[in-house]
Write a structure and sequence with these properties.
- The structure holds two protein chains of two kinds.
- Chain A is α/β, with parallel strands linked by helices.
- Helix content of chain A is about 35%, strand content about 20%.
- Chain A is built from twelve helices and 15 strands.
- In chain A, helix 10 links the parallel strand 10 and strand 11.
- By secondary structure, chain B is α+β, with helices and mostly antiparallel strands.
- Chain B is globular.
- The chains are: A alpha/beta, B alpha+beta.
- Chains A and B meet through helix 4, helix 5, helix 6, strand 5 and helix 7 of A and helix 5, helix 6, helix 7, strand 3 and helix 8 of B.
- Strand 5 of chain A pairs antiparallel with strand 3 of chain B, so a sheet runs across the interface.
Chain lengths: ~400, ~325
């Protein structure tokens, strides 16, 4: 089995709070980070909005001002000391930067479009490359950290920041970099909220993944960053490693998942095969679990096919946790955020409650964790499934 | 359902020779700062409003396409890319970008000889489905107005790769990325690192749509798609489906020390740090002209053709990545 890639630091912000501590305190306290959507979003629903005023960007980054940029800074600044150590250890040019986003700064483009309709020109504060472009997210984090290795955005809708782990693993394995800052950043905007509303999958209430009373998704925003480093002298990991990543395509439909969860199953199988881990060794799954009827059915089908024997009995060997009830569906930031949740779960030897999942939908055949409890899990899959039939499953594990 | 579609892939190189000699596992030793990745460039696909494919562009002199507009070479009345792979029911809903990318894909794999249901896709674009996105912005400006569900799901950056996988029944890995002024370099890094990981075939597609109002810019790239069929294996030209394959090895190196950047690099447009839009087309056209020279034997003295990948100088990034193209030795 190939050795894992140690995680040496992480950070997160989302509807649960602006800091990693607030986010994880909320997760393990069973506190939801959802609120009624601002009227400007134009839909009666709940969202996971980063709470409070977001601090403005430094003067040097003022040209990148956007909600997306401010969320980037919230997760980047706390990670700077760890990234500085990695730059000294490997050289700044050997540290890569791979970020997932689906929205980038489209909220600014929405305002810019309306402004030009009313004034005949784009606002002075808007440029396509610094506010709208996907790559601006990389430039902001690069300028804050001084990381000088290859950098790019992965944008495959809701699997974006799960797939960054696959790209990072490839660049490390090919010897292109020695460390990679990976993560995901998404910000609330009308495009995603009203877009999903018109697909008729938004829940009017706080979302209830895997519950018999689920009515759809809530959209969330926020970010998560993780620093991955080649195992080596002086690398102090947090005790959690990236063991494998599996990617797949449904080849079925642009928005509807494969009816039997084929792509989700293949992604999980590839993650395990690449890491040399048997299905029986997996003791926890962080499900994609959006709370739509179809996602939860097809994803459950895939999990039952692959892990059937581990799901039965009084105390099943496989713990299933759904966390979108805390944050909403963070789209391009979901994969990295849930990787942070999994890392914290392994570190603390505690499973968070799947908030909102009770009463469980018994037809799904999974015994989802409903209450927080102590359990030391060692091999955890985290799924992200997206438009275009783009699927990824990230395998994290406790360091030996 | 055939077993091969769902067969999990190994992360090791066992049985899947790549042209790099990297170790199968993540080693605990830092690599040498100089990196070289190799792949066989077997096919080139291209679509622009003026040129229906790579050969049409070459036949017209391989000129700069940055400011060329025009009618399609086949002139059948529909100016949009044919994208024959897409069922008409699917095609009707797709954008120019998706159709151009699909058209270039078909052309590249048709030349290189790869099965569309088993190649991996890497799509590189700065602005992706910008026409669909701007149409949504217009709809969103009406507070109570409807938002087209089709436009919404067709606005994601991975729209083209989604349609490609659906149309070809392909369950393999597919990704969609953006690298700003480094689009060529990061696309090649993602694609070649993937070949080193699992071998096989990858189609690397670069595509852009001309920016629609109100975001139109004089420094923006035109509508285009270019697809490169890259493989860990040289083509077997005795096989009928590979008989037209290019016989070129592409080597990607970081040129920090050994290789002086060719003079062409200085001529490329700026676009770093949010100052102007970086051109993806300019360095890409150089890569394609180089491929044509090697293919046509103009480089038969075996001097590799070097192509810089980055437009302008980016102080934020250390390595300048460089591609060299090498004619395969016919003696093997």
């Amino acid at each position: 089995m190939p050795p894992g890639i140690p995680i040496s630091a992480y950070s997160a912000c989302n509807g649960l709070g602006q800091t990693t501590a607030e986010v994880l305190d909320g997760l393990f306290a069973g506190r939801r980070g959802l609120s009624i959507a601002d009227r400007s979003l134009g839909v009666s629903t709940w969202v996971g909005a980063v709470p409070g005023e977001l601090p403005p960007l430094d003067a040097a980054l003022r040209e990148y001002e956007s909600r997306q940029g401010r969320i980037c800074a919230l997760v980047t600044v706390p990670l700077i000391p760890a990234i500085e150590r990695a730059k000294r250890r490997w050289g700044a040019g050997r540290v890569g930067l791979i970020l997932g986003t689906s929205t980038a700064g489209i909220a600014e483009s929405e305002r810019a479009w309306t402004y030009q309709r009313d004034h005949g020109q784009l606002p002075d504060t808007f440029t396509l490359e610094r506010q709208h472009a996907l790559y601006a997210t990389v430039e902001i984090v690069r300028r804050l950290t001084g990381v000088r290795g290859p950098g790019y955005v992965v944008s495959t809708a809701c699997s974006s920041s799960g797939k960054v782990f696959a790209s990072a693993r490839r660049l490390l394995a090919a010897g292109i970099v020695d460390a990679v800052v990976v993560g995901g950043v998404d910000s609330l905007c009308k495009l995603t909220v009203r877009g999903f509303a018109n697909l008729e999958v938004l829940s009017p209430d706080p979302c209830r993944p895997f519950s018999s009373e689920r009515r759809g998704i809530n959209i969330g925003e926020g970010a998560a960053l993780l620093l991955l480093e080649r195992p080596g002298i002086g690398v102090e990991g947090i005790g959690v490693e990236l063991l494998g990543v599996g990617e797949s395509s449904d080849a079925h439909h642009m928005t509807a998942p494969h009816p039997e969860g084929l792509g989700a199953r293949v992604a999980m199988e590839r993650a395990l095969r690449g890491a040399g881990v048997a299905p029986e060794e997996v003791d926890q799954i962080n499900v994609h679990g959006t709370g739509t009827t179809m996602n939860d059915e097809t994803e459950s089908h895939a999990i039952r096919q692959l892990f059937g024997r581990q799901l039965v009995g009084e105390d099943p060997a496989l713990s299933v946790v759904a966390t979108k009830g805390y944050t909403g569906h963070m789209l391009g930031a979901a994969g990295a955020t849930e990787a942070v949740f999994v890392a914290a779960t392994i570190e603390r030897k505690q499973l968070p409650a799947s908030v909102g999942a009770a009463p469980l939908d018994a037809t799904l055949g999974l015994s989802v964790e409903l209450e927080r409890r102590s359990r030391a899990t060692r091999r955890v899959l985290s799924n992200s499934l997206a438009f275009g039939g783009s699927n990824v499953s990230v395998l994290l594990g406790a360091s030996e | 359902m055939s077993a091969s579609l769902t067969e999990p892939l190994s992360g090791s190189l066992a049985g899947r020779p790549a042209t790099t000699g990297r170790p199968a596992a993540i080693s605990d030793h830092p690599r040498e700062p100089s990196v070289e990745l190799r792949a066989h460039l077997r096919g080139v696909g291209m679509w622009t409003p003026a040129f229906a494919d790579f050969d049409a562009w070459l036949a017209a002199g391989a000129s700069d396409i940055s400011h060329v507009s025009g009618e399609p070479a086949d002139g059948d009345g529909d100016p949009r890319p044919p994208a024959k792979l897409l069922h008409p029911r699917l095609r009707r809903r797709t954008s120019t970008l998706t159709r151009a990318a699909v058209t270039a894909l078909e052309s590249a794999t048709g030349q290189g000889g790869a099965s569309l249901d088993s190649v991996r896709f890497v799509l590189v674009s700065s602005f992706g489905e910008i026409e669909a996105t701007v149409e949504l912005l217009e709809q969103l400006a009406e507070p109570e107005g409807p938002v087209s569900p089709t436009k919404f799901h067709n606005s994601v950056h991975n729209t083209a790769t989604g349609y490609m996988s659906i149309a070809s029944g392909n369950h393999r890995e597919a990704t969609a990325i953006a690298g700003g002024p480094h689009n060529l370099a990061v696309g090649l890094l993602e694609a070649l690192a993937g070949l080193a990981e699992v071998g096989g075939d990858v189609v690397l597609i670069f595509a852009e749509e001309r920016l629609p109002p109100p975001f139109e810019r004089s420094d923006a790239d035109p509508t285009f798609a270019v697809a490169l069929h890259l493989s860990s294996e040289a083509a077997d030209r005795a096989q009928p489906d590979q008989s037209r394959s290019l016989e070129i090895e592409l080597r990607l190196t970081n040129a920090t020390s050994t290789t002086p950047a060719p003079a062409e690099a200085a001529a490329l447009a700026p676009g770093v740090g949010g100052v102007g839009l970086p051109s993806m087309v300019a360095p890409l056209m150089q890569l394609l002209r180089g491929a044509a020279r090697v293919r046509d034997g103009a480089a038969h003295d075996r001097v590799p053709v070097p192509i810089p990948l980055t437009s302008g100088d980016d102080p934020g990034v250390e390595s300048a990545w460089l591609v060299t193209l090498h004619q395969l030795d016919p003696r093997g």
